[in-house]
Write a structure and sequence with these properties.
This protein is of the alpha+beta class. It folds into two domains: 3-82, Phosphorylase Kinase, domain 1, CATH 3.30.200.20; 85-220, D-amino Acid Aminotransferase, Chain A, domain 1. Helices cover 31% and strands 36% of the residues. The chain has six helices and 13 strands. Strands 8, 9, 10, 11, 12 and 13 form a six-stranded antiparallel sheet that branches. It has a five-stranded antiparallel sheet with strand order 1-2-3-7-6. A two-stranded antiparallel ribbon has the order 4-5. A hairpin with a 2-residue loop joins strand 11 (171-183) and strand 12 (186-190). The longest helix has 24 residues, at 145-168. The radius of gyration is 17 Å and the shape is globular. The structure holds uridine-5'-diphosphate. Uridine-5'-diphosphate (UDP) binds at residues 92, 98-101, 129, 175-177, 197-199, 211. It catalyses: 5-amino-1-(5-phospho-D-ribosyl)imidazole-4-carboxylate + L-aspartate + ATP = (2S)-2-[5-amino-1-(5-phospho-beta-D-ribosyl)imidazole-4-carboxamido]succinate + ADP + phosphate + 2 H(+). Belongs to the SAICAR synthetase family. It is an enzyme of class 6 (ligase).
Length: 235
Amino acid sequence: MEKLEMLYEGKAKKVYRTSDPDLYVVEYKDDATAFNGLKKGTIIDKGIVNNKMSAFFFKMLEDRGVPTHFEKLLSDREMLVKAVKIVPVEVLIRNYAAGSLSKRLGIKEGTRLNCTVLEFCYKNDELGDPFINEDHIKAMGLATEEEVKVIKEYSLKVNEILTEYLLKKEIILADFKLEFGRYGDKIVLADEISPDTCRFWDAKTMEKLDKDRFRRDMGGVEEAYQEVLRRVIGE
Ligand code: UDP
């Protein structure tokens, strides 16, 4: 398997074609953006943390029955993945109020929600990833009803598995974002699971161990990424 030309460069990752049409190489960058690209910066070695953490979680989820695009780690910053077509819908899962939910609904950040909240956004940078519901998804033809059912099922299962695992590491999984892809006629979990896409809070102190430290200029960003990786994979 040979790494060929770059197909796509996103805000945090690059995707390369390979000599196998069914496989891509994903390379994780240190570039960080927030507020739909308005704030830009670098988080040193973030690419390494996010690559290793995503690989670890994808493997764990695959073992527990959630299909993912992950094939194997190639290097510090690279993983081999299935060549999927991303469904242009982001799934947000929330266990605690934070970020845009707190702002929108006036719920104090850190409040435990009475039940898990699942939201959808339309993955579209120009529109700023607007919130949508299942009818919008169907009306716009973004995914079929059956696909949405599977996506919701997998998302809630990911939440259960990760929440339980992270609590043992004294981390609260406040909320996170997932993306799915189509591989043949199957839906598989894709993108990444990292401090860029999850809110991780220290279970004792509620200290933030994720990208909010960058978004909100809190300092200690690199340290938080390293700390959460250390706790998650025990390094
Ligand atoms: N999130 C993400 N990418 C996005 C939007 C949200 O990874 O484009 C993650 C974010 O890190 C958080 C969760 O999804 O863990 C919920 O994000 P929220 O809607 O609160 O948006 P934010 O406050 O990050 O703008």
